[in-house]
Amino acid sequence: MIIFITTLCPLIASALLTAMPFSDFKASPADIEFFKRKVRPLLIDMCVRCHGAEKQKSDLRLDTVAGIRKGGASGEALVVPTKPETSLLLRVVKHAEGVSNMPPEGKLTDSEIADLTNWIKRGAPFPATVNPEPNPSSHWSFRAVRIPALPNVKNVKWSASDLDRFILAKLESAGLKPATLADKRTLIRRATFDLTGLPPTPEDVEAFLKDQSPNAFAKVVDRLLASPAYGERWGRHWLDVARYADSNGLDENVAHGNAWRYRDYVIKSFNDDKPYDRFLTEQIAGDLLPSSNPNKRNELLIATGFLALGPKVLAEPDEKKMELDIVDEQVDTLGRTMLGLTLGCARCHDHKFDPISIHDYYGLAGVFASTKTMEHFKKVAKWHENSLATAEESEKIAEYEAQTVKLKAYIKELTGKADEASKAELKKRQAELVDRDKNAPVLPSAMGATEGTPTDIPLLRRGNHLTPGALVARRFPIILAGEKQPPLPKDASGRFELANWIASTENPLTARVIVNRVWRWHFGSGLVRSVDNFGLLGEKPSHPELLDWLASHFVKDGWSLKKLHRRIMLSSTYQMSGTDNPKAALIDPENRLLWRANIRRLEAEAIRDSLLAVSGLLDRKPGGPALTHVNNRGYLFDHTSKDLTTYTSDRRSVYLPVIRNNLYDVFQLFDAPDAAVLNGDRSTTTVATQSLFFMNSPLAMRSSDALTDRVFEIAKLSDSERVHSLFALALGREPEPEEIERILSAIRTFEKEFSDAGSDPVTRQRKSWSAVCQAVLASSEFIYIK
Amino acid sequence: MHMPSRRELLSESALGFGYLALSDLLAQSHAADEGKPPIPKQAKDPHFQPRAKRVIFLFMKGGPSHLDTFDPKPLLDRDDGKPYPGERPRVVFAKTGNLLKSPWKFKKYGDCGSPVSELFPNVAQCVDDICFVHSLHGTNPAHGGAAMKLHTGSDNFIRPSMGAWVSYGLGTENANLPSFITVCPTLAHGGVNNWGSAFLPAATQGVPIGNASTPVEQAKVRYIENPRLSTSAQRKQLDLIGDLNRGHLARTGPDAALEGRIDSFELAFRMQSTMPEAEDISKETAATQKLYGLDDPTTAPFGKQCLLARRFAERGVRFVQVTHSDSAVQWDQHGNLRKGHSKNALEVDKPIAGLLKDLKSRGLLKDTLVLWGGEFGRTPTVEGGGNDGRDHNPEGFTIWMAGGGLKGGLRYGATDDYGWYAAENKVHIHDLHATILALLGLDHERLTFKHAGRDFRLTDVHGRVVNDLFA
């Protein structure tokens, strides 16, 4: 029971510990100790849920000295020092007559009541020394990034790169040794999955094994970084934190028919190694940046899709609420994606934990309220799209529309005329109009932002637009941007300034947040594990100096992500094996210090792509629209529940439709988020329905059949050679002798199983091999990276 | 006294859950391997003594009219055709005209004398087991927002569904079946979010069986059948997978996820037989089938859904949702009220009464909470020109519950004289959630999960347990 109560309480506990001012009573250390050990935990467990910071039932607080002294609504003294019998607190917990009996869940035990009595007898002492309330502004992530000194280490040979010294120093001080380096097969498999989301081909593996040069692995890394698959893999990571989707989700699940342009923009940006500061600037304020040519201009407009892609309650009848909910979604997403800050928490009240005030929130919300991402808010509301048309295309459609107007005028003229010729003509022209409307050219456009009407918005008490307070001037959070900020322009939203402020070397969060994300996507867990929350409730970094070292070098390298990958991957830290070490596992069971490589399961997309890749089915065609069965803004499925979206394409998963409310079931199964909220730290679950997928799904069976065909491509192979080929294709390694034996015995078993079916020997053989291939594809080794 | 740190608490209460469940699963499968009966050990203790162990939620998609079913309004009859004298809500979904009396007659039933309209003659026979809440109210007058509010407590954010919270809080009593099953859910208006787990562990999410456009006979868990291998051949294939995975585990060293994965194949293999067995209603007696209306094509589809719900419930599934929706928004009679509501009620009345009677005769009703309702009620005023439609009304409507430690025959709360607003003993949707959790032995303020920097609850920062409903 206590477990559940106290999930809310440690915070209050800390307030109780730290916020206690001096007591009037002279208390001995033993008295204080008594309070800390006996009384405080009791108050926390039994009382402060209703009488604390969150709630003050009967106007009573028991988490501050002032509150205990003041007592509750009755006005009677709660605690009379040295006089338990007259203290209301004691009568209440003893369930005396005429007072309410507390706690409502049930009477305290006799020993608990005795402790309270004892405490009051001692004079109700509180701690005489108090830890000062920690100043939230001194929280580590709000301080400027500093370039730390390189730590000293003993094993100089292992720490080939500076990065390694930060890891090794901590390992050495914990008395731990790093694992040995991974073998080359493991390494290339790990690197290829990490950078491209695909397994290495047998040829890639062979080439790497043959390459004895000292920079053989660097060459592999460079090759992978140059592959278009890199952008498809890392672009997908970014799409996770941009809550990318091809449909709105929520109530009116209509098609984001042009969202794919943003997806392709992201992939291209990663492949081009666009400086990260520029990448962010474009997504916040691309429409406000100068551009040299129409293509570049369109790219910048598409980038602002980031702001527009959120889920919206499009049939919200309260239009003002809808508008503010959309702004809120933008503030929240921007904060968590780029700054690792849960700004959305300050919509209804000052942030409970971070030094973000409700004024900070509405200062920032004003920037988005001054930005146009919606055409209108009437249900069903319509989001804004920026036109990407060339002058020529625009002219053409203007011409087309002009002709339609003429036609309509002509039809009006004809309407009502009684003669047969006119009637016939009218009929013909009406049909022509229907035709014209149907075939009207659609101009290319992209979801995105443009400037709205610059306006400051009022603070909304409890986040409710029906109770507005005073206007809040648009500005950035004080904790990060300071009290004295240059005012935002009156004649613009302030998005341009916001972009520059976020994508700045001065911003203590931006670079730290992204290098930590990259670390997370390489190692399975961030240096700061709460990758989307760097606030006070986020986790502290395991290696704060390394985080700053990476962030500062990243900025120095011109915010280049590819250089960051190289820096990480060419370290000994990255290249460690996953070898178990029982001693280390005891000291550091979560591997926070990185004494070995983490064992990681592939993400949903990589699982599907790998099945298609090893079986030779993968279609590598890049880019383009995701939805083919529904027009932009059309309903994915409206009131009917018929899902018309198909996933039969064999293209990479990043190009499949992402449908909110009804995500592709294979993705759902393997922990892909619903794409309505950003998520930089996907979870990995193991549930039985995943096993059903490997056992029974058409995709698993089709891949097994195709893989069988590949294994049989060379007709003259012996069965054991076929096992070699299967292992090389699927697992990138040689089979062990006992594995060959086990597979061959399985083949024999299946041949017998299928013999009753009366099929011919060739079919039987293929069926048997396909069953074996399926088992290999279902094996843990296929979807886990060491 | 040791004060657990925040992190310790989390690992015990939240993150640890997965491992807990996992180790229990392992324990159970080993027991099964040795030919012993499986011990359902995945259940978790509630916060306090529960009144109900499981929930069956009969969701009437679209918004059935409380005024035409369970909440008669004499003044509405009297003032039919006159303007509504009160103030209309600030935000309405559609424009409506004057007052419209119910086309259906009401009668009092049972010892309690609760009134029920002609639409539900069979449910009317069960009123002494039913606890009506006539004063429910929400906030959102659109289907999407209201459906999500009812299912997740939030109409504008993605939050875990009620069933996922219950699974998270109590686990399952049968590790061979999912803890939360939703039968033929609608994919519209929130879709998967209405049974999703959002940020809760994935194992808590609802497992859908078909959807609203699937005939119930075809509704199955995805990939539950193998189209090409015999059970014996598949058993051999699983043996091979097991050997490969154990070899891999031996090379990698101890790892909970890898161990769990080995077991999950065995569980999946068993589910292939437990699921179809649970779904096989052919062994039910003719009398039982008749009770649910399976002998009549009008009532058979929803009857089968209800019968499935009972079969899942008795097999230890914690939360079963049954949705009544066709490929339109079934109960959404902006027009055609007479025809639409008559048809809808006819389809569900007998099956629902059958379910209540069946649960009762099997002794299951006492610890099964049956919840009936839509995402909102309907307006007392007419919509459209035909004097035959009503608009959405989230301001005051009726839901009812039965079983699970509730006072049968109770009518709690009331709407105003015309039935537009909840007026007496108002129960907000958050309060309903708090009450349902309380019936299950869960304190809605203590059932929390940390996400994005704070603790989340089904009831957000609201919710009041309506103790008056408890027997």
Descriptive overview:
The complex is a heterodimer of chains A (786) and B (471). By secondary structure, chain A is mainly alpha-helical. In chain A, the strands form five sheets. Chain A has a two-stranded antiparallel sheet with strand order 1-6. In chain A, strands 2-3 form a two-stranded antiparallel sheet. In chain A, strands 4-5 form a two-stranded antiparallel sheet. In chain A, a hairpin with a 5-residue loop joins β2 (374-376) and β3. The model of chain A is unreliable at 1-25 and 129-133 (pLDDT under 50). Chain B is of the alpha/beta class. In chain B, 33% of the residues lie in helices and 16% in strands. In chain B, strands 1, 4, 5, 6, 7, 8, 11, 12 and 15 form a nine-stranded mixed sheet that branches. In chain B, strands 2-3 form a two-stranded antiparallel sheet. In chain B, strands 9-10 form a two-stranded antiparallel ribbon. In chain B, a hairpin with a 2-residue loop joins β16 and β17 (454-456). In chain B, α1 crosses α6 (256-279) and α8 (300-314) packs parallel to α9 (337-361). The longest helix of chain B is centred in the first third of the chain and has 28 residues, at 6-33. At the A-B interface, α1, α2, α3, α29 and α32 of A face α1, α3, α5 and α6 of B.
